[in-house]
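Notebook entry, structure prediction.
Reason for the run: the old model in the group folder had no record of what sequence produced it. Starting over properly, with the input documented here first.
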Amino acid sequence: MDNFRNISNQYRRYKAHVSVLGTTQLHLRNPYMIAWWSAAFPGFGHLLLSKYLRGYILFIWEVVVNVQADINTAMVHSFEGKFELAKTDLHPRWMLMYIPVFLFGIWDSYRTCVDMNNVYLLAEREDAPFNSYTVGSAEINYLDKRNPIMSVLWSLFMPGLGQLHIHRVLMAFFALAWGIVFLYQSRLLEAVQFLFLGDIQKSTNILNPEWLLFMPSVWGFAAYDSYINTVENNKLFEYEQRTFLRENYQSRSFTIKKGKVIAE
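New structure, fully documented this time:
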């Protein structure tokens, strides 16, 4: 149940949509920043654009092909100066498959960002109304203001919590699920336990670098995504409130002229 429906279908573009799964909106983005996130991890640039299906496909592709090609393991050995060992780690059949899709993700996210910026400018000019409140059998969602710093802090504790803070359910579930996978496969929490016990050697040896190198990108993206979307949701809330008050309440300059009192 939404508080606005486009029954007459007279508007072509909308800036936002509030559903039980989250708030999706158009806003201006930096194409170079989107392309940079796609380079950091394929799929992230598309997820920032709310292109979820395309982003999920590229994300899962990155994990599967990267692990099969042993790219992260080869990177660790190259950082250690073991270049010959890094060469033997790589699997050419998977490595050559990795490059074209990786480049496509960067190019497509940049192109899509430019297109969506143009769509936003058209939607801003049309200024069509949109729903700000929805009630469903599973959830309730509405526009309100949240603290961006809190979104970042919760995301640093665990990817997905910042998205839950601003009711981005799809992103929250995806980030939480993969955060669990990366933590388990990398054995990071076990390493932290041994580190607290003072066994630094065992803490280092138990780590799985192939999965560990995924984590900085995932944690950084979760914090960045939650911060940006919290800021933009706050702007959308202020815009909706300002529009509502302007249309439903008279201005301060309005004066009531004195007239004759008519007795009944």
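Summary: Strands lie at 16-19, 22-25, 133-135, 140-142.
The old model has been moved to the deprecated folder.
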